[in-house]
Structure formats: C-alpha cells, structure tokens
Amino acid sequence: MVDIASIRQLFLDDYIVDSLDGVIRRYHRPIRSIDKPVLGATAPWEINSIGPFLFGGTVIYDEEDHIFKMWYRLDEPLEKAPEGMREVVAEDGSITRRNWIEHAGLFKAAYATSTDGINWDRPILGVTEYQGSKINNILPSGTGGKSIIRRPAIIKDYLEADPARKYKMAYVDNVNGKWSLEKAYSSNGINWEMGVGDPAYFKSPVVPHGALFGWDPRKELWVHYSKKIGKRRIDVDGSEISGLQAICRSTSKDFEHWGNTREIITANPFDPQMWSAGSHAILSAISYTDDLYIGLSDTVPARSAEDVQPSLIDTVGSMRQEHFTELFYSRDGINWNRTAPFFEFLKPGVWGTWDSELVLCSKPIVKDDQILFYYTGNNLQCNAHIPDHPQRELIGTVSGGVRSGYGIGVASMRLDGFVSIDGDDPGGVLTTKPLVFNGDRLVLNARVPEGPDSNLSDTVPDFGVLRVEITDKLGNTLSGYGDSDSDPVLGDSIEHVVSWNGKSDIGRLEGIPVRLRFHLKNSALYSFHTRSQKVVETSFSTTEPGSRGRPS
Predict the structure, then answer these.
(1) Is 104 helix (H, G, I), strand (E, B) or coil?
(2) What is the pLDDT of residues 513-549, one digit of tens each?
(3) Are the C-beta atoms of 375 and 360 separated by less than 8 Å?
(4) Cβ of 391: how many Cβ atoms within 10 Å?
(5) For residue 162, how many C-alpha atoms fall within 13 Å in the half-sphere facing its CB?
(6) What gap in Å lies between CA 51 and CA 63, rounded to an integer?
(7) From the CB of residue 28, how many other CB atoms can be counted at a distance below 10 Å?
(8) Is the per-residue pLDDT at 552 higher than 50?
(9) How many Å apart are CA 373 and CA 294, to the nearest integer?
C-alpha cells in the first residue's frame, strides 16, 4: 500500500503501478519554441569568449521580483602552453598530458534578466573591469589568486534571515594551486562577498566541478553533486583514457562546510564499454514533488581506442566524446535511476542550426503549467576551445547567419510531461497498487484528443476517452465508482476533475486503501493527484526547486 497523500503521481517507474494491460509507457522530450539562442554572443566580452554557456551556471524565476534571472559563463579559449605538451600531476599521483595553460581570468561569469524568459537584458553592473571599463554585466571574480569564477551555481534562499545572504553561490576557484568549492553571498545576486569561509577541497579523484542542487528539505541539508574522474584502460597496449567515473554527492549543514562525499551514480554491468554517467552538465537536479527528485545529466554512451586517429590523441584524445542527455529520477535524492536508459531526453538541433552538435541541460524550472529547460548549445565540439583542436579556428565565425560557438537556448514541456501512459485503439487499462490519499477530488493531467487531425479526415465521434474506476484493495469495484459510472474525461488539461454520474466527491474514501483503474482509449495520462475542493489551485510552484522557501 502506498500513501500518496495529495502528491502528484507520475509514471516514471512502477512506484504506484500494479499492472499495465493494453497500454504503454511513452517517453517525451521538451519542445523548442524558437530556432535560435535566447542568449547568444553579442557583447564584446561574449564575442571574445567561447560564447555564453550554462553548465555550472544557473537560471531561476525569482518569485519575489517576478522576473527570470540568469548567471552564465564566459570562459576564454584556452591558451597554448609555451613549452608545448606538459604533464599535470594530480593529488593521487596520476599524470595527464596537456598542451594548454589555465591563465588568470580565464573563467568568468555574467548576469542577465528577462521578463518573459525569451528576451534577455544585460544590466550594467559596474563591478568588474573589462578592457578598461566597468560598463558591462560581468560578475566579480574569485579570490583564489587567479581571478577565476567557474561553475557559478546560485540559489535564492527565501527563508534566509540575513538579507546579505539571501543569494547563495557555490563556485569553483583555484586556491593554493588546487581546485576547491568556494562559497559566496549576496543581497541582490549582483554584488557578492566572494570566497567566504575556508576552501572545500575534495579528496582526489573527486573534483568540485559539478552542480549545486541546493537545500533538500527532506534531508535538511545543502547538497552538491560533483565528479569522480580518473583513467581507465582502453586497450591491451596499456593505453588509458581519462573521464568521469562516477557522480558523487556532498552535503553541508551550513552551506560552508562540505563533506560526506559518496558515489551515487556509476556504470552498471549492462552499460556499453566506458559508459559514463556524466561529463559537463552532471546531474542538474531539482526536488520536483514531495516524493520525487528529477535530474538531467549528459551521459557518454560509449568510448573506444578507435574514437580518434593516433595523430590527434594528444590534442583531443579522451576529450572527444558524445554527450547524450538522459533523464534521471530518485525517491530519496541519493539512489538515482535512469528513467529510460539511452533515450535521449533533449536531442541536438538539426543540421545547420546553432545547437546541431551539442546540448547540455541546466536545472529545470517549474513555472505555471510548464517545465522550462534552459540549455547550452553548440554547433562545434564542446572542447573546440582547446589549442590545436581541429575546430578551434571556427569559434566565433558566422556561416549562413549562424555563429559557431556556445549559446543558450530554451525548450519546454507540459507539467509532468516526462512520461505518459498511453492507450491507443482499442484501448487498455492501468491499475494502481492499493493507495491511501487525502482530499475529496481526483484530478488528472491528461490529453484525450477528440479525433484525428481535421486536415486529414473528419473528427471521429468518441475517438478518445478516459474513464476511471475505483476498487477496493482486492480489486472489487466500489458501488457508484465503476467504469460505466465514470463520466468520460475529454480534452487536453493538466486539471481534469473526475466525476461519476455527475458527482466528483470522493471524500468518503479518504484514508481507505483503494485501487484506481484508468481505462484509456486513444488517450494519454501524465499524472494524477487528489485534493480538497476547499483548496483552489491557480498555479504551480515557480520558485527555483532546490532552494528554501519553495511554495507548495
């Protein structure tokens, strides 16, 4: 028996599903509404970088200010090391050969705002000098000695009592020659107190380059996801390849002292050789409902010794890899599952478009009846900024009106639209496990078409129909709640209220174990929940998930 209270129930797994008879679980992707970046390289400090991008960056909808806010990255192309190939020794003694140096000021971040999430403004912040002027939207740099701010992950803490710490940032800096997770605070998201407290060094081979989840109210901890990197044998001749071996989770009680680092996502024996759980935009996750976490990660499907010709091994080598965005979910924030292994959640754009080569998702934003996915796109390899990379000279060039390099786009999906249970023709039945609920109304997020496209044929009467039957825990139909008693659910809505013989009140069943049987014909069910008629829901959460003070 599952106590669902009044929490929306999705169908990413069989958590509340007992059987599927004649219906299928169908996976969906977000839809791009525009064919260009919502934020491309237009300002001089963007044109002179590899382009604006987000992995490690943040987009939120500020519920107090009622605008979208974005903190994005502006990394410069890597400079070639004057001595040629050089060896970089990690703390664990492993050696990596590189042909570049990471100079001071290489990693920057900037700030933008929008009223509609599509058209973005770059407010003049006046806090950082660029080419002799502070007339720009560049954020302050880190304090580690190299003017670095890398992976600036931000949340707005609505419950913070100290106004100066309303905005919290976790970012990466190079302190004393080592990468560390640094903290910063701000009252407005613009003027920051950087490098607060002691650096948080991660024990190699774990590195802080990751993603900030934010505050987890169920665990009462701040959560950060990071990378475990290392080398693995790729050939019998002793050749090795570097890459991400696992995604790790670290926690903090006060946002400043981080620890309890543990692996949470790794490859399993059924994955292809050298499969990796992430690379750049690892596990950009949110608390989606009170019993479900949602995350996105750019998995790497497979790698082999033959991926790059020998002459390019030192130049691009292990860094040439596919990025395959997958959807992850968790019931506790620790144990994660892939919703549909190898189903590409957001595909790159079509040939010739600005995002045709690479897409990397940031944390989703739940706003009103939609989920927004801001993402980094590129029509070059993500490592084209490396010296001697074959595509290096293409960065910033324009062909057919399309600029080569990074940009930021957006795609959207209906609320709870990740997965649907579909009944085609002649239809089928989804039966739940015994459930206990709170409330007196059953509400469905469902799409029940009236018929085929009117441009192709006449509308078919009663083409799509969805009915709901309620049984006891043993499967016996309750009087008055049978399939024939159910009024048909028709149309497309995230809030269909189910009724039986014209009555929708199910309050007498509250707290009693029951099963729901959804009879679906040419219809799709995305989620359901119960609620009290006394509670009027006009919108859903718009606060960035993972922050404190998220509206329920």
Answers:
(1) coil
(2) 999 999 999 999 999 999 998 654 444 444 455 566 5
(3) yes
(4) 18
(5) 6
(6) 28
(7) 16
(8) no
(9) 12
Distances (CA, A) of 197 to 180, 225, 255, 461: 12, 20, 10, 67
Average of per-residue pLDDT across 354-373: 96
pLDDT at 288: 97
Kindly give, in sequence order, each residue whose CB lies less than 8 Å from that of residue 401, ignoring residues fewer than 6 positions away.
Answer: none
Both tokens of 216, joined, read 């987890």
Q: How many CB atoms lie within 10 A of CB 493?
A: 15
Question: With left for phi above 0 and alpha for psi between -120 and 50, is residue 132 left, alpha or beta?
Answer: left
C-alpha distances in Å from residue 237, one per residue of 233, 240, 242, 305, 321: 9, 9, 16, 10, 21
Region 47-69: mean pLDDT is 95
Report pLDDT for 361: 96
- Which residues partner with 520 through β-bridges? 428, 466
Confidence of residue 550 (pLDDT cuts 50, 70, 90): very low
Distance CA 280, CA 274 (A): 16
**C-alpha distances in angstroms, 4 versus 131, 414, 437?**
57, 22, 5
How far apart CA 440 and CA 534 sit, in angstroms, is 9
Tell me, letter by letter, the H, E, C secondary structure of 39-80: ECCCCHHHHCCCCCEEEEEEEEEECCCCEEEEEEECCCCCEE
- Measured in residues, the chain has a length of 552
pLDDT at 483: 96
Buried-state track 517-542, b at ≥16 Cβ within 10 A, e below 16: bbbbbbbbbbbbbbbeeeeeeeebbb
Q: For residues 9, 14, 15 and 21, what is the CA-based torsion angle, rounded to 10 degrees? A: 70
Contact criterion met (CB below 8 Å) for 413 and 431: no
pLDDT bin (cut points 50, 70, 90) of residue 83 is confident
Distance between CA atoms of residues 489 and 459, nearest Å = 17
Contacts of 65 (CB under 8 A, 6+ apart): none
Distance separating alpha carbons of residues 247 and 175, to the nearest angstrom = 23
Start-to-end CA distance of the chain, whole Å, equals 24
Average pLDDT in the chain: 90
- In 3D space, the residue among 143, 283, 263 whose CA is nearest the CA of residue 212 turns out to be 283
Nearby residues of 173 by Cβ (< 8 Å), 6 or more positions away: 142, 143, 144, 146, 148, 149, 150, 179, 180, 182, 195, 199
Mean pLDDT over 148-173 rounds to 96
Residue 310 DSSP label: G
